[in-house]
Amino acid sequence: MKTQLLRLIFLLVGPGIFAQEAVNTFVEQGIQYHDQGEYDKAIETYQKALELVPQSALVNYELALSHFAKGDYEKVIAYSDVVLDQNGDHMLQAYLTKGSALDVMGKTKESIKLFEKAIKKTEGHYLLHYNLAVNYYKLNELEKAEEMVIRAIERNRNHPSSHLMLANIHHQRGNTVQTLLASHYFLFLEPDTPRAVEAYHMLQQNFGGNVSRDSEKPNTINILLSPNNDSQFGAAELMVSMLEASRGLEENQGKTEDEMFIKNTDSFFTVLGELKRKKDKEIWWTFYTTFFYELAKSDHMEAYCHYIAQGSKENSKKWLIENGAKLMEFDGWLKEL
Length: 337
Description:
Elements: H1 2-35, H2 39-52, H3 57-70, H4 73-86, H5 91-104, H6 108-121, H7 126-138, H8 142-155, H9 160-173, H10 176-189, H11 194-206, E1 211-213, E2 221-223, H12 234-245, H13 257-275, H14 283-297, H15 301-309, H16 314-322, H17 324-336
Antiparallel strand pairs: 1-2
Helix pairs in contact: 1-2, 1-3, 2-3, 3-4, 3-5, 4-5, 5-6, 5-7, 6-7, 7-8, 8-9, 9-10, 10-11, 10-15, 12-13, 13-14, 13-15, 15-16
Keywords: Repeat, Signal, TPR repeat
Signal peptide: 1-19
InterPro entries: TPR-like_helical_dom_sf (IPR011990), TPR_rpt (IPR019734), Ycf3 (IPR050498)
């Protein structure tokens, strides 16, 4: 009796198990093809898996992804919809892929509606908020873009792209302090990529970019404060300008660019920390300033400044190689925060 029961179970379950194993094998092969840039072969392989399990969320998502790489966005939407209609696994990926396809097709407003729907339907993953922010940014709706990207940061503070977008939003607005804070944190997370080179340049532009010297009066310094900046950052922006202007002081004569960058960065973080009030609840104070003020009070400012500059300055990269112990101490300090 037991033997007959086992045979029956095998007949009912066995084919399904073998089919799933075959699907997994096809998916693994398809992913390899995709990663190698052989998208047609990947799609052909996924189709074999789809013949076995037509409603597989995984297979339909992988097909959407490979068609996206090929630029066949109508099929991206079709396969993504199969996943979304099931309301189960891989929904986040399907929303992101479909939303990106709509945006590339010039249907940015439809993409926005999709991401808004996805946020309401799910727990609001940081990537949904980030991609929604990207769409608003493309439409030059900077306030909405800022709101969404801050929500993304609140959900994942270690997502470099969100900090970079926030920096770009405020750089476009001409807001020095906010641009500096977001740029600094982006460089802290991603210091050695092509994007880091651009971010470091933006940081340098904003740190003293509004300070100029009168060619006819060398001892006269002109400071242009941003008319767009919120009053809560007015004192901090003036302080940034004064720090840049201090390069000409006698006490700073003979200091290298690196030494001045470290000194002024330390002063910037310190003054911001001292300006922070209990009633300040925005991310600039509760997150950025809190972190950087603790850094300014530590012994690791030199290591930090060279770390974030490594993608842009060869001497910083060299410093990191030659000062491995200090870098390890900085890492240990970060882990204890």
